[in-house]
Amino acid sequence: MTTNMVFNEHDLEKAAQLVAESMLDSLPPKAACDHTFSDGFLAKMEKLINRQRQRQTWHKMIRFAAAIIITVSLIFGAVMVASPTARAAVVQWVRETYENSMIYRFFSEPSEDTLPLYRLGWIPEGFEATDVFYDQELYRALYLNDKTEQGFVFEYYYMVNGTASMVIPREDCILEHTEINGNPADYYQELDDANTNVLMFFDEEKNICFSITATLDKDSIFTIAEHIILGKSTK
After folding, report:
1. Can you say whether the dihedral through the CA atoms of 95, 98, 101, 107 is positive or negative?
2. Do strands 138-145 and 150-158 pair parallel, antiparallel, or not at all (unpaired)?
């Protein structure tokens, strides 16, 4: 017959103490446990200890470096927000997505020079300039082909702080980041060339943004952009 026995906390502590004392008494004396480890084993342990020390030091360095980077980033961000001059020294333009639009914001200081006069060294056959606007800040020219009823607009302007340009592509439009004569460019390709394709490119050395908006194929648009020539005179 088994009798259920109930032990209180004091009884359990006393029993555990007795078991621990019994186990310690059964161990051999310390002198009998003396052991000499091999040189190979000690060398391996030394490598393991050194590796762990190096890892701890590396982790401390990483945390320290991360703290510095975060601090510098916060200071840099505050300066960029507060100072247009600081932004212009680091970046001249940025691309931002707003709802269904792509907005280009510019941060350079206004130029004291008159906007240079550029001309197109190549245009597709049958196109003629029908409307041209040019002043100190903006150049815009409309080219049309009466037979094909196609057209394109060639435009450029200084990337002045506080100004922005907007592109509103269709949902199925493909954005390609590319280059025009070594300058960064964004090309917005519609699925149907009968719709309006847009090429934006940025001459960061001269601080000018160029754009071609056209109902033309990609090759024609890029060829126009690659043959832009600086004119001999300015207004």
Report:
1. negative
2. antiparallel
Using CA atoms, how far apart are residues 92 and 105, in angstroms rounded to an integer?
A: 8
209: Cα separation from own chain's centroid = 20
Closest CA to 202 of 223, 232, 177: 177
Report pLDDT digits (tens) over 77-93. 444 444 444 444 456 78
Cβ atoms of residues 108 and 161 within 8 Å: yes
Which amino acid is residue 207, in one-letter code?
A: N
Is residue 92 classed as helix, strand or coil in its secondary structure? coil
For the chain, which residues make up each domain, given as ranges? 37-81, 92-230
pLDDT tens digits, one per residue of 10-21: 676 777 677 666
Question: How many angstroms from the chain centroid is the CA of residue 115?
Answer: 31
Contacts of 223 (CB under 8 A, 6+ apart): 122
Q: Which amino acid is at 109?
A: E
Q: Give the list of residues 6+ apart from residue 95 with CB closer than 8 angstroms, or none.
A: 102, 103, 104, 186
Report the C-alpha gap between 13 and 7 in whole angstroms.
10
Tell which CATH classification among 3.40.50.11740, 3.40.50.880, 3.30.200.100, 1.20.120.1760 matches the domain 92-230: 3.30.200.100
Structure token pair of residue 156 = 């450029």
* Residue 12 φ then ψ, to 5°: -65, -40
DSSP letter (8 states) at residue 192: S
